[in-house]
TrEMBL record:
Biological source species: Cyprinus carpio carpio
Top-level taxon in the UniProt lineage: Eukaryota
GO biological process terms on file: DNA-templated transcription
MF terms (GO), sorted A to Z: DNA binding
Alphabetical keyword list: DNA-directed RNA polymerase, Nucleus, Transcription
Subcellular location: Nucleus, Nucleolus
Name of this protein: RNA polymerase I subunit E
Amino acid sequence: MAATCEWKPCEETGQDAFIVKFSNGHVKNAEQLDFQLLKHADGVNPRKKNRRIVVAESDRLPYVGNNFGSGSLQCNNLCRYFVGVLDKRTMQMKVHNAQLFNMLPVIPGESAVDENTKQAETYREKVDALIEAFGTTKQKRALSSRRLNQVGNDTLQQAVALAARNIIDQKGVETLRNEVVETEAQTDTALFLPPCNPEADKPEDVYPFDQLLSPNEFEALKDVGAKMAALTAEDLQKMRAENSPQIVLRHLESLPNEEAARDRQSRCIWYLSFLIKASLQRRLSFKFGSEDGCPRIIINKVLKDFTVESFHSGCLRNTVSSSMRMKLAAHCLALLLHMSDQTADLTLLHRDMGISDVKMLEVAKAMGLTLCRQSAYSREEAGTHDEHRMVSLVLPLVHYERRMERRKRKRMN
C-alpha cells in the first residue's frame, strides 16, 4: 500500500521534533515518564534563543538533556536530522526538523554547578584525585598526611592572625610601627658597632677600651708601638709624602711627652693605622701585616672580627665586605675617642678609610655621638681653612630618630 508524504519546511510546522537517548539503558515504557521541554527566555539573542532543555522524570531518577554545553551531542552541529510523523488515519506523513538529546541521570542531593562559574581543577587537585582512585597505600598515606599538615597550617595562620589582631587593638598601629623601626635599627647597628654600655657613668666606659683591645693584644703591640713613638720629623715628612692616613699623622705630631701616656698612645696609633690599612683591602691573607712586624695575635683578631670567610676555587678567602668596612669604621671611631679625650675628627677618618661622608655619619649617629662642625687649618694648602665634622661622646648618648622615607633618586636624562 503506497503512502503519500507531505513536505513542509520547519518554519511552517511551528515546532521541532525532539529525539531523546538515555545513556544508561533503554526505556521499556515511555508512558511512565513525565517529559518537560524548557527553552531559553531570551528569544532575541541568536546564540541563546535555540537552547533547549528536556527533563524526563520517573519514579526512581530524573533525567536531563540539553542541546548546548559540554553534555550535548556534537552531531547536532555537524548535520541536520529529520523525523517523519505518519498519520494512520489519512496515511499522510509530515516531516519535521529533529534534534537529538542525550539524557543523563541526575542524582538527588547533588547540586548542579554552572559551567561559567565552575573553577577548573589545578594540576595538584587532579593528581590528588588520581591518587585517591588508583594510588598505592603509601601514596594515599602521604596524601592524607599532607592534607592534615595543610589543615594544621591553616589553623596556625588563623591563630597568628587572631593574636596579631589582639596586639594591634591593645597597642595601636603607630606604636607597633615605632617599635618595629627601633628594633630594625638596633638589629642593623648591632652587626657593626663595638660593645657598648649605654648605662655607664663615665664616657670612657661607654665603649670600654679593653673590648677594643684586650690586655694580651695591647701587650703584643709594645714593640711596634715603640717604633711608632721613635719616629722623627723626617720620618713623618716621608709618611706624608707616601700619603699615609692624615688622622694617624695628626696624632703622631701630638704625642704626649709623659712616658706611659706616650707608650699607650703610640700603640693605639699603630693599631689604628693597621685597621685603616685593612679597610682599604678587598681581601686579607694570613701574611697581611707581617712585613710591618704585626703580631700574630693582632692578625688573627682582624681576620676573625673584620672579614667574611668564603670559598673560591677550593681555597678559603677572607673578604672585607661593605658591612665589615662599616664595622672597621665604628671600631676606629671608638678607638679615636679613647685617644683624643672622647672627641674625634669624623671628616679625616672618612677620607682616610675611603668611606662616604653619609655612611660615616650613620656610624656616628648609631653610636650616639654628638655632632658639631669645626674650622680646621690645612697644612697641604697653606692659608686655607677646611670645615671638618667633629664628634664627641657626651652622656647621655644622643638618640637619633631613624628616617622612614627613602631619599628620591635623581632622574637620569
